[in-house]
């Protein structure tokens, strides 16, 4: 399963291309641009499982760092600062990782 099964390849390119500068990542804008926000909760959950590469049931810091790469292999890694901001936005229960419900909430809020 890949992102382009759910999302428009051109939207992905535009969204990833909008945040090429280090420390420019804005997850709200990104989730909107990439078309994730208008997807059904089921599709958002499928995207969560793509992002959860090691299938631990959570998106951990390392997986957050490569979130852009999960959409487009040539994209950059997030900076440590961007990962911190994203984790703080998504991690509601404070376990330092993002669960599926936290992820769907994060997308819905964007
Ligand atoms: Ca994981
Ligand atoms: Ca959490």
UniProtKB/TrEMBL annotation:
Keywords: Calcium, Metal-binding, Repeat. GO terms for molecular function: calcium ion binding. PROSITE patterns: EF_HAND_1 (PS00018), EF_HAND_2 (PS50222). One of its GO terms (cellular component) is cytoplasm. Residues 39-74, 78-110 form the EF-hand domain. One of its GO terms (biological process) is inhibitory chemical synaptic transmission. The keyword Calcium applies. Ca(2+) 2 binds at residues 91, 93, 95, 97, 102. In muscle, parvalbumin is thought to be involved in relaxation after contraction. It binds two calcium ions. This is Parvalbumin. The gene is PVALB.
């Amino acid at each position: 399963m890949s992102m382009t099964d759910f999302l428009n390849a051109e939207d992905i390119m535009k969204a990833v291309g909008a945040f090429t500068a280090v420390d420019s990542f804005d997850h709200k804008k990104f989730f909107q641009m990439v078309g994730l926000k208008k997807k059904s909760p089921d599709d958002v959950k499928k995207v969560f499982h793509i992002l959860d590469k090691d299938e631990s049931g959570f998106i951990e810091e390392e997986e957050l760092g490569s979130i852009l790469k999960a959409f487009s292999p040539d994209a950059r890694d997030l900076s440590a600062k961007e990962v911190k901001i994203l984790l703080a936005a998504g991690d509601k229960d404070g376990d330092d990782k993002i669960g599926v419900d936290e992820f769907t909430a994060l997308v819905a809020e964007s």
